[in-house]
Amino acid sequence: GFGNGPLLVSRNKIDTGSPANARIAIPGKYTTANMLFSIAWPEAANKTEYLFSEIENVVLSGEADAGLIIHESRFTYQKKGLRKLADLGEFWEGMTGLPVPLGMIVINRRIPEETALAVSRIIQRSVEFAFEDPATSRDFVSENAREMEGEVMRKHIELYVNKFTINLGHEGRKAIAELYRIASDKGIIPAMPERLFAGI
pLDDT tens for residues 119-131? Predict the structure, then answer.
């Protein structure tokens, strides 16, 4: 989507022009966050993987100089005393004009195409129903997000569940393919597979 990219945060100001020597906490090697960071700062090699929900505390403790935060952390980092160094969503949008390809719904390539498309339609109808009647899913979401404050949960859903969740469309597919292409060209990930999307 737009306006919901990963953020690079720290306790203290570091030189974002050249963070090569900074210790960076990342939420996983093959995450959008790390791919975008690696495209923006290819020279920054001192990276350590952490569970995404631990990154704020890792930076606060001084174990890392800066961290890439995703999900609900973008709504809580300031309250914890962290500052934003860079918005990698803005970086991506400025470079490509495309939405940031974040979490996706995927299916094993061994599943027959007809079955994959049927599953896709069921998920699409489920998300559409949740959009039309958000109160119906509120209790379920709250039960599975016990540690998240109600307001943070609401903002999280509003920001990350959007039209691309229902249907990637041409723009969403183009964004994913472009991220794959750039990351592959720069050696961040293996070569892009021939087919990324079911039914296409």
Answer: 989 988 988 888 8
- Which residue of the set 23, 47, 71, 156 is catalytic? 71
**CA-wise closest residue to 175 among 34, 32, 50:** 32
What CATH number was assigned to the domain covering residues 7-96? Answer: 3.40.190.10
User: Which residues lie closer than 8 Å to 98 by C-beta, 6 or more apart?
Assistant: 92, 171, 174, 175, 178
Residue spans in the chain of domains classed CATH 3.40.190.10: 7-96
Which residue from 129, 92, 104 is spatially nearest to 7, judged by alpha carbons? 92
Q: How many residues does the chain have?
A: 200
- The 10s digit of each residue's pLDDT in 163-188 is 777 778 899 899 989 998 999 999 88
The per-residue pLDDT for 5 is: 86
Known catalytic residue at 71: yes
In sequence order, which residues have a C-beta less than 8 Å from that of residue 78 and are 6 or more positions away?
Answer: 84
Please compute the mean of the pLDDT values over residues 148-161 and round it to a whole number: 67
Burial class of residue 74 in the structure, from the number of CB atoms within 10 Å of its CB (0-12 exposed, 13-18 middle, 19+ buried): buried
Tokens representing 21 are 């020597």
